Amino acid sequence: MRVIQTTRTMLAASLVMVASQTTDESPPFWGRIYLRHGVAPLQYFRDSYGGHISGDEWQFVTPLDTLGCSAFNASDRSLISNSSFVVLDRGVCSFEIKSRNVQAAGAAGLVIVSDTEEVVRPVAHVDKGEIDIPTVMVRKSGGDQIRVAVSRENVYGRLIPMTCPQSSVCGPHEPTHVQHLTSGVRGGLVHSTEKSDSDWEFLASTFGSPFLTQFLPLVEAVPSHACHTLDTAVVNQMVVIFTHDDRSCSFLTKVRANIPCCPMTLFHCFKVSNAQAAGAASVLLVHTGDGPLTRPFVADPWDAYNITIPSAMVSGKTARDLLRLRFPVTLKHDARVADAWERIASLKNLGRLTRGYAAPAAKAPAKAKDKKGGPKVVEEVVDVTKYAPVNILKDSTHPELKAREEYPEWLYTLLDPKPTLGELERKGYDNLESMTDKRRLIKLSYRKAIKEKNDSKSKK
Fold this sequence. Notes:
Blueprint: H1 2-20, E1 30-35, E2 42-46, E3 57-61, H2 74-77, E4 84-89, H3 95-104, E5 109-113, E6 135-138, H4 140-150, E7 155-166, E8 169-172, E9 187-192, E10 200-204, E11 218-220, E12 238-242, H5 247-257, H6 263-277, E13 282-287, E14 311-315, H7 316-325, E15 329-333, H8 335-346, E16 352-358, E17 377-383, H9 407-410, H10 421-427, H11 435-459
């Protein structure tokens, strides 16, 4: 976990350096929209004629007049305020006309949605100062995400101007905007209407629209694997889908997307797509394997460009609990959950750990001996993808393994910043600055000595 935190700290520091190097230049022509409760930013190109983009949080509104080629009527004007960005479609009239009408309605800015996945920079020949609101353009898929989310509840977000002073490193134009780059939802807790706390975790998909704050009723998909058109009524509900590795599902993904795909990455996307087509508001994908919980993803973001609902992965136990209780639920962001599962997933690189321990005393008259004459050692294979060996991380010689079903009770011990005995011994008592660390070294060393003494007695 400290490695993960250190990496993120270094990344943030590098982005601050990038931003500090660019604040004296002209405002960048592109940036990213970070939606509240979103999982991934949306890229935009900004105009050549409008006002400054502040980076404040704005509400996105979608008037009935989706083109904005004439003055808005009273109904549409009631949606627009100086704290909102208006979302309009590209076409029929010029960028200038759209920007002028949106400015006249009192909006803070304009988002134009392209009619394709290609984006251009809005251009108009106007005198400086005539249009003082910013106008940006996003891909059709990005606009669809915003519109679908707005149709369900209020949507807020920030437009963050970006720059790339070094070709391989891009960062925010303003140093104060660095914090928003890690604001996306990666995981959290499932909350119900009947429980004030939660023992159920989720990991967010890397694709789709922002997570909804409203509570949604649960329904299990039929068929449960959702590789085919759903037979159940799922409109405006959260659909639970079991993620069996169905090869036919992978094949259908290729056909539907008309692009080469990897079965183990795109089949999640296809299942969500089927639920979306049936009118679902959100999706819970159920992890059915033995490995650690991981975020559903696609190798190329383009593969999921048409997914406009949020989705997440939960464990089999969580899914069974939720379907049994049938409470409406909502998904709330908690970065610590994602941090912990990332740390657990990193252990799979260790493969299968083998640990040895002395066999218990036998009732037979003679003790079992190994080839070297000592007590027979029994080897136990620990599959770190099936169990989360929290105590192995703490340098425990004989870790007490906990099944993943017990995960909620000890989740945050993975985030415990207390140093292990090995770390303290490497630094040495005299080099420890904190009295807390010195006392911890003495305590852990004492425990280790007692354990070694007891082990030596058992071998005699």
